[in-house]
Write a structure and sequence with these properties.
Strand order of the largest sheet: 5-4-13-8-9
CATH class of the largest domain: Alpha Beta
Radius of gyration: 24 Å
Number of helices: 6
CATH topology of the largest domain: Sulfite Oxidase, Chain A, domain 2
Helix content: 10-25%
Number of domains: 2
Shape: globular
Low-confidence stretches: 21-28
CATH architecture of the largest domain: Alpha-Beta Complex
Structural class: alpha+beta
Mean pLDDT: 92
Number of strands: 24
Strand content: 25-35%
Order of helices and strands: HEEEEEHEHEHEEHEEEEEEEEEEEEEHEE
CATH superfamily of the largest domain: Oxidoreductase, molybdopterin-binding domain
Distance between the termini: 31 Å
């Protein structure tokens, strides 16, 4: 703890010294921009500054994925226009006035809700991350010139607003044999996932708003299912139907997809929960750093609950140091962490690993392969991520075996 305070003190003195040398500190100094001329007028919609190049990156030829620029963001809330995208058959155009949500099956009474009727129910809101289970699926093949956006950009965080799914199910009533729900989307592929009734009655939400505005079309407008802490495909977008049954439906997206093949020729199925993960977001590619003090920064999250600790290694895993967690530290959310680091100019490897409130520790790739086999790592690959700092100050992605 004393070492961290000393480091922050040194960084503060360095910043104050730099500021003192700035020409803006002298009275009568000339400022490049003449503020006496009126600026732009008020606008109906704001845009990013032209000096800020913030955008998602489209990864696949079919344009079904767009990744969040994790290394360019601050705090934990992802702006709605930078929230990652993943869909299977394009973004449908749904008229909210014609929208209907049907709940039927093993219920006491089948009900159909309009968007306005859903909004009349008591409102619930929560901050939570969303992550595709295929995040980091290119862990072993990404080039050294890969940024956090390239490596793990299929996660984002928002404030989600809607109605508790449990409220709607209490409205319909459930038959004694009710055990599962089939959630069906209104896109061209009719995306479907089976959801256990326990999750539906716990923290599942029917969402119509995100970060203070209506959910955007690529996020499921006008309604999406949201299951905090679970793999993104279960939070079915453009939700149009919930059928209650006594067993899972074994749809395409939970048999040939979103299952984890194991070495014994079986498969890990319904692996819903996103395990603890962390990623350093600075310094990373394409950073070029100088010898001296730096603030290592990153994000950590877990679908099992709150992040309890993050450890950082500045010597490739030889030693681990506790990082500072920046509040708020909430369950099933992105949490910011940081650690001051004095770089001596020698090549090294930066690593981070998260620990959640259940005691689960983010594993290495070797540990995951030993437990599940390499064939399972297409999904739920939460292995430790490394960043190689070269003697010339370049920072590149490095596979950590």
């Amino acid at each position: 703890m004393n070492g961290n305070k000393k480091a922050f003190s040194l960084i503060r003195r360095k910043l104050l010294k730099t500021a003192a040398l700035s020409p803006f500190m002298y009275a009568g100094s000339t400022v490049a921009d003449d503020s006496r001329h009126p600026g732009a007028t008020a606008t109906a919609k704001s845009v990013h500054s032209p000096f800020e190049n913030l955008e998602k990156k489209i990864r696949t030829p079919l344009q079904t994925e767009a990744l969040t620029p994790l290394h360019q963001l601050h705090g934990t809330i992802t702006p709605a226009d930078l929230h990652y995208q993943r869909h299977h058959s394009g973004v449908p155009d749904i008229n909210p006035d014609q929208y209907r949500l049907l709940i039927h099956g093993l219920v006491d009474k089948s009900l159909q809700f309009t968007l306005q009727e859903l909004k009349r129910f008591p409102t619930v809101s929560r901050i939570a991350f969303l992550e595709c289970s295929g995040n980091c699926d290119d862990y072993f093949t990404n080039s050294p010139q890969s940024s956090p956006q390239d490596i793990a950009g299929l996660t984002s965080q928002s404030e989600w607003v809607g109605v508790s799914l449990a409220t709607l199910l209490r409205e319909t009533g459930l038959k004694p044999k009710a055990r599962w729900l089939l959630a069906e989307g209104g896109d061209a592929c009719l995306m479907t996932r089976s959801i256990p009734i326990e999750k539906a009655m716990d923290d599942a939400m029917i969402c119509y708003a995100q970060n203070g505005e209506a959910i955007r079309p690529e996020q499921g407008y006008p309604i999406r299912l949201f299951l905090p802490g679970w793999e993104g495909s279960t939070s079915v977008k453009w939700l149009r139907r919930l059928k209650v049954g006594d067993q899972p439906w074994m749809s395409r997206e939970e048999t040939s997809r979103y299952t984890d093949p194991l070495p014994d020729n079986t498969a890990r199925q319904f692996s819903f929960v996103m395990d603890a993960r962390s990623i350093i977001t600075s310094p990373t590619y394409p950073s070029l750093i100088e010898k001296g003090w730096h603030d290592i920064r990153g994000l950590a999250w877990s679908g099992r609950g709150a992040i309890k600790a993050v450890e950082v290694s500045v010597d490739g895993g030889g030693h681990w140091q506790p990082a500072k967690l920046h509040p708020p530290v909430l369950a099933k959310t992105h949490t910011r962490f940081s650690l001051p680091w004095l770089w001596n100019g020698k090549e090294t490897l930066l690593l981070s690993r998260a620990v959640d409130e259940t005691g689960y520790i983010q594993p290495s790739a070797t540990m995951l392969i030993k437990a599940r086999g390499i064939g399972s790592l297409r999904y739920h690959n939460n292995a430790i991520i490394g960043w190689r700092v070269h003697q010339d100050g370049r920072v590149t992605y490095d596979v950590v075996a």
